Amino acid sequence: MANGGIKEQVLYVCELVKENQLNEAVGALQSVNTDDILCSSDLISLLISIEQTAFNLLQDCLNNVDKNTQSRLKYIEQVGLFNQSVATKNTNDKQQINVQIQVLLNVDILQNLVTIIDTLRTDDHFHRHDFVICLCIWLEAIAHFIHRHDNLVKELIEPLRQSVLSCVLSDWYQKYLTPSIETNIPARHFFIRTCSFVTGVLQCNQLSFENALKTIQSYKIVESIGQKIFDVRLADFHHYLFQLKDIENDRKCLTGICFLMTNCYNVKAFINNDEYFNLLLQLLKSDFVRKNLFSTWTNESTILADTLMVQLKNCSNEPSIRLYLQQNNAADAIHNYMHADYDRLRLQACMLLGVLLDDETMRQLKIPGDELTDLYFDAIRQAHQSSNKCYKRVPIHLLFRALSSLVHNQIIQASVATSTNYFDYLISMSDDYNLVYDIFWTLSFNTSLHEKFHSHKTFLQRLQTFVNDPESVLDKDIVRSAEGILWNLNHRNEKNTSPEQSTNVENKNTQLDKY
């Protein structure tokens, strides 16, 4: 049967489940290829019946713990693992995503999951029972899907989000976060790992700083929900992190906590906390994180590295934190992730380097300017071509902001100067993204790029129009950039200061303010 067609395999699992042959059903389900499942929308009703049976068994565990037989738990666990396999398949095909949604987010099951979660929060009678671990697998399967498609199912998962958020704010969370607590209690994994992880993922579209810049409304959500969590838990988070002695032995809980802290981003909570940022850098340098990276967001090391990189990138928008990272050689730890197999981790590392690097550091670390420039422009192109103007869930305006900082370096300016199309590409994007003018202002300090500027007469005429009629331009930063560009092109050679010296002086004076 294992070699039969996908429909025959799924029917066979259903038959075994119906006959209560759960051990056999586990083996049969293990042999089902989830790639085939995503291409078979006609199997949805059968798959939901498999899910529903597993969930009914899970729910029975609350009513009669004596029925927690190994065969039942093994079947529930295997369905959860099957869900995780479905959830972690990266696809942009709408039909396949619809299959994922129907398999993972059945309305009835979601409602009943909330009931179970609320029971665990209010009653510790079940905290030591193994079915709690099965529940964690199910919830984290949902979280993995939400992480990849956080804009699809907001209303559907709102009750679940509220339920796990309540767990994070509960007394049980604080109790299990204490370093002296027994670590192998199933409920500890549920509260500290799964609820942290799930809350963070389910809130990422609302709490992520990457999205906070889009609208005032989303920024208010960041402030209110993120601040609420930090008001209750920030001291507990710090105590846990600084008491942690062995990353690997508590890696799942550590990942959940770091991920939740990243999604509750509030820079005010981290200002002047040098010890905390030193800890984040030490985690990035650890062998556990560096040597166990996957090409997908599916294992602890990869999730933790990506999470830490995002948090450092978000916090680096604060000048004092950015200065601390620069003075403590953060680029030395981060540049190792430039070549990570996971593309989003690679992107986040390069964006953070764009904020921290100077020419001397690039030479010391032997960071190739052409390669770094190529990655930025490739990400911007893909974001511009996407319907939501994001690349790997990073909005294009943040990519431009990072590039506007990176181009202060002469090594990067040289890459733009020698490229056959980067300068022209920026010209073509200037109508759509105002930050491009800021980038051009920085580039205009480099006299080797002046010829490229002068070859674009229409663009220069547009700049002159901005200067002549500033009231016609809504964004006054564009006017200032236009004035600076034209002055550099027309008058900079009249100054006695050499271009290289002048560029270095301007860059040092504007680098922190302009990012």
From TrEMBL:
- The segment annotated Disordered runs over 491-515
Which superkingdom does the taxonomy of this entry point to? Eukaryota
InterPro entries registered for this protein in UniProt? ARM-like, ARM-type_fold
Q: In what ranges is there compositional bias, type Polar residues?
A: 498-515
The name of this protein is Uncharacterized protein
Species in which this protein is naturally found: Rotaria sordida
